[in-house]
Amino acid sequence: MAKVVIDRDKCKxxxxxxxxxxxxxxxxxARLNKKGLNFVEVxxxxxxxxxxxxxxxxxxxxxxxxx
Amino acid sequence: xxxxxxxxxxxxxxxxxxxxxxxxxxxxxLVAEVIQDLGIRGKTIAVAPVGCAVVAYDYWKFDCSEAPxxxxxxxxxxxKRMQPEKIVFTYQGDGDLAAIGTxxxxxxxxxxxxxxxxxxxxxxxxxxxxQLAPTTLLGQKTSTSAAGRDKKLHGYPLKISEMLALLPGVxxxxxxxxxxxxxxxxxxSAIRRAFQNQLEGLGFSLxxxxxxxxxxxxxxxxxxxxxxxxxxxxxxxxxxxK
Lengths: 67, 242
Description:
Distance between the termini of chain A: 7 Å
Oligomer: heterodimer
Number of helices of chain B: 9
Strand order of the largest sheet of chain A: 1-4
Number of domains of chain B: 1
Strand content of chain A: 25-35%
Helix content of chain B: 25-40%
Structural class of chain B: alpha/beta
Radius of gyration of chain B: 17 Å
Order of helices and strands of chain A: EHEEHE
Structural class of chain A: alpha+beta
Radius of gyration of chain A: 11 Å
CATH architecture of chain A: 2-Layer Sandwich
CATH topology of chain A: Alpha-Beta Plaits
Strand content of chain B: 15-25%
CATH architecture of chain B: 3-Layer(aba) Sandwich
Shape of chain B: globular
Number of strands of chain B: 8
Number of helices of chain A: 2
Distance between the termini of chain B: 43 Å
């Protein structure tokens, strides 16, 4: 199983990763980051397929993927 | 576990000033990935435009020059002619390359300068507040065409890539898009090809990237990508032009 690591303070909350994740494991957080924006976070119970779609579409390079 | 995706080395880790969902961030990363993959970071010189990407040099870790508005290809021509061993590319928006800089673009292409161009087409002026650009679609509302672009008043969207295809000095033209992850990967291949052509000395290469501007299109980031897929692509068809 792959692991997604999100730089929450770099995230601008465009939620493109949320809309493209085929497993639906990336969610909008209810908390705010240093910029005062809702960042995204990974559901710890979710299973990442490692397809990289979230990272490829992220305009701010906030996502790192480990396999 | 090993890292399979992270920030490419030629891209700084600092946050950008771009709006949420802006395509510039993706395009900056693609350029950095290509430079890393080709191993040319030490000999690459970028020329930044005037427009939203005016401070692109703050985000890349290789040499960059700034050019007056629209003159990136004139500056790039000088750099490449003085230092032909360097890999020189311009990164320009539609206001820069297809409006104020149309003249420089056409003549650099016609001279067949051995340069690579990343042309970001978002059909609007972003930096100055969402005004009508030459590439704005018919009917598209902007801050200076509140009722939508009217062909009688504003003319038609300018297809600069198709125009450049007529020039014998141009070796490669491709239009790509950033509207989904698959298209982003295709865009990277096209940018790589443009750099590879320069390494092989083949002449002028330009990649036109259809890029979202959610802020001035008045759409959410995802709606902006879908607008490229459903509307913008019809006016600016994707694929190899030359």
